[in-house]
Structures are given as structure tokens and as C-alpha cells.
Amino acid sequence: MPVHPVDQVPPPTQLLATGLQHVAASYAGVVAPPLVMGAALGLAPGQVTFLVGAGLFTAGLATLLQTIGFWKVGARLPFVNGVSFAGVAPMLAIAGQQPDPRHALPVIHGAVITAGVLGFFLAPHFCKLVRFFPPVVSGTVITLIGLTLLPVAFGWIQDGHPERPASPTGLGLAGATLVIVLVLRRVLRGFPRQIAILLGLVAGTLLAVPAGAVDTSATRHAAPLGFPVPFHFGHPVFQLSAVISMCILMLVCMTESTADMLALGEIVGRPADPPLIAAGLRADTLGSALSPFFNGFANSAFAQNIGLVAITRVRSRFTVAVCGLMFVLLGLSPAVASLIALVPRPVLGGAGIVLFGTVAASGVGVLLKAGLDQGDNLLIAAVALGVGLIPVVSADFYADPAVPRTLRIILNSGVSAGCLTAVVLNLAFGRAAARGGWGEMPH
């Protein structure tokens, strides 16, 4: 019986190159939340560096859980798991409730552990919601994943300052990287074509050197070795309000991970059925529960790597497992980790346009298969996309204090808000259509 492409093991050279490509695509997303949290909590630079190393180390462990897995844990798909940026806002809110924000990490870690354990036991029940994801819903959600990620790429082009105009240097580096990736994809064949993103990032970084856009300060001051000592910031503290906030966040992350698994399942040709989703959610939540032991935060699937799989067509989960192993090693060696950080953000942004745009285009493909001319599918997709894009185009849309904080956590996640809208509309219009004879309910 032939081995499915997801379970095939590529040659060592290809494993290393494609694994490094996944590291390059997701590195910025993994280190951004620890950097934001460290700065917001007023930690010293050395402590912030420690927090970043912990984020890399725990992201690697969570990725290995997802790709290799054990028992009923792990979707065994080419998924990168990393620190969820959706958790930054509620964690900052938890820190704001403490007398001294610098001592908030034990409270945050206690809340993440509890939420992770709760999510682990909810996974086999949560996965049953997949029946509410017919093609019109899953296609809408996959499209939203890509569209909500594109502003991240634009922010990278603006060098991490979305409130400022993009500089000519940033635009030039992003445009050059984008063109290089497209040219490489057009002219190369075989394995070199599969690592066009990685080659584009290297070429873009080399172009950035004479432009003075490569920051080497992190490399000069990074220690060669380091280990995320368990509970470095103190033993976990379990505070009820913090636990409730993180449990709500965990449900949001589980919704997004379910959507990501549906998207990746479509791309790699292994549809995400309830057992696979349950196994994937167990890996997400177990990784989150274990992460605070090594000073990390909640982990979830990284949607940006779905685009990389779609472009390269390298579907092997072992390439991403190598990425997870690299993250573990990077977490143990700040000096090596700093080398990855040499890639300027605008260069990442240029590649990100390709990666994230591919995810959105994949969702459009699923929508076309769903038949937008059937019943009210077009209306369902249109409204859900509109609702999902609200927090993308207007970050402060739900910022009014009158909107409950719990509700804001859900609404400020474009994927979650759009997903819930699509599910509800599909149930309402689909069933109405079935009763009223307007057409068949989507399957």
C-alpha cells in the first residue's frame, strides 16, 4: 500500500532545507509575543531574552507533539505550533490587574496551565463541531485565515510599526524579495523550486546588508548556550479571574486550530475528520499546559505555515518535525537563534505576501467547490467575510468599554468571529432552505 505524502520521509538534505524554511517563515511569529510581553511587563533585557528562548523551546516541543505525536495526541500533519498572539491581549489584561506587573508571570502561567488542561479534556467533544463546517463554512474560514494574516505581512514591511508609513528601504526590500521568490518559482525545477521562499529570504537579507537594514546587535550579545529553567519567574499562581480569561481564550484558539486543520487537510489531501481534529486539539492544549513549566505561553497552530505547504507542495509532516527540533535547539542556544533574527522584517513581509495570499486563494478554491450559486451560499460567505474582516481593518472597532471584555476576546479574532458567523448563518439559511425547498442544505 503506497505511503501517503504526509507520512513520507524526504532525503536528509531536503528535510533540513525545508525544515529551515518553516523556521524562517514562523520565527517572527514565535518570538513576537514573548518580546511584547517582556516589554509590557517591564522585564530587564536579559529576562526578555530568556523569555524569547523559552518561547522557541516550547514552540518546538508543541510542534513535535503535533507532527510526531503519541497515542491520540497530535494531528500528524505538517503543522507548526507556536506561541499564540491571540493570548497577548488577555495576558496583558491579567498583568494589569496585579499590584506589580513585573510579578504577573506566575499568575499568567497558572491560568495557561489550567486552560490547557481544560482544553485537553474538551478536545474529543469539541472536535464533533466539525459537522458544522461544510465547504461553504470551511472555505470562508480558510479565506479569512489568509486575509487576516496579510496585515501581518504589511506590518513587517513597515518594520513592525503599522502606525507609520512604510519606508522606501522597507518597500524596496519587500518588493525585491517578492520578485525574487516569484522568479525562482518560475525558473527553478525540482527541489530548488520547493525552497524558493528560503532562497528568497536569504537573497533579500543579503540585499539588506548594504542598505544598513540588518541589525546584528542581538547576535553580538547573545549567549552561546542557555536552558529555560522550569518556573524561572516563580511557581504558578491560580487566580480565578485570570483562569476564566485564559479558558475563554483557549476556546478561541481551539476554534482557530480547528479551522487551520480543515485548511491544511484540504491542501495535503488528508481531510480533517473528527478523530484527527481531536488529536490535533489534544496536542495544542497539552503543549499549552506544559509550556508554562518552561516559562512559555499558550501554543496553537500557525496558519502562516499552511501557505508554505501550499506553495512548496512538500506535504511531509517530518519536514515540520525537523522545524520543531530546530526550535528546541534555538531555544537552547540564544546565539544561534539570533542568526535567524538577522532576516529583516521587510524581507519577511515580501515573502509573507506570497505565503498568506496563497492561504486566502486556497479558501477561494474551496468556496468555488461549495457552489456559491447554490441556495444562500453567496450570502453566507459574504456576511461572514465582512464580520471577520472588521477587526482586521479597524483594530479599535470593539474597544468601547461597554463591550464586555470576554466578548471582545472573541470579536477581536477575525477568524473566530467570521467562523461563528458562517456556522450560524449556515444553520439558519441551510435548514431554512431545506424546509422551504430553496435547495439542498450544504453537506
| % residues in beta strands | under 5%
Helix and strand composition category: mainly alpha
Low-confidence stretches: 432-443
Q: Give the strand order, joined by hyphens, for the main sheet.
A: 1-2
Transmembrane segments: 44-65, 77-97, 103-123, 135-157, 169-188, 195-213, 233-254, 318-341, 347-366, 378-397, 409-429
Keywords: Cell membrane, Membrane, Transmembrane, Transmembrane helix, Transport
Family: Belongs to the nucleobase:cation symporter-2 (NCS2) (TC 2.A.40) family.
Membrane topology: Multi-pass membrane protein
Description:
- Keywords: Cell membrane, Membrane, Transmembrane, Transmembrane helix, Transport.
- It is found in: Cell membrane.
- The chain crosses the membrane at residues 44-65, 77-97, 103-123, 135-157, 169-188, 195-213, 233-254, 318-341, 347-366, 378-397, 409-429.
- There is one protein chain.
- The chain has 443 residues and is an all-alpha fold.
- The chain has one domain (5-132, 161-351).
- The radius of gyration is 21 Å and the shape is globular.
- 54% of the residues are buried.
- The protein has helices at residues 12-40, 45-67, 88-96, 105-126, 135-157, 168-187, 191-194, 196-208, 217-221, 240-268, 274-290, 304-312, 317-332, 334-340, 345-370, 377-393, 405-411, 414-436, and strands at residues 81-83, 299-301.
- It is built from 18 helices and two strands.
- A two-stranded antiparallel sheet has the order 1-2.
- The longest helix has 29 residues, at 12-40.
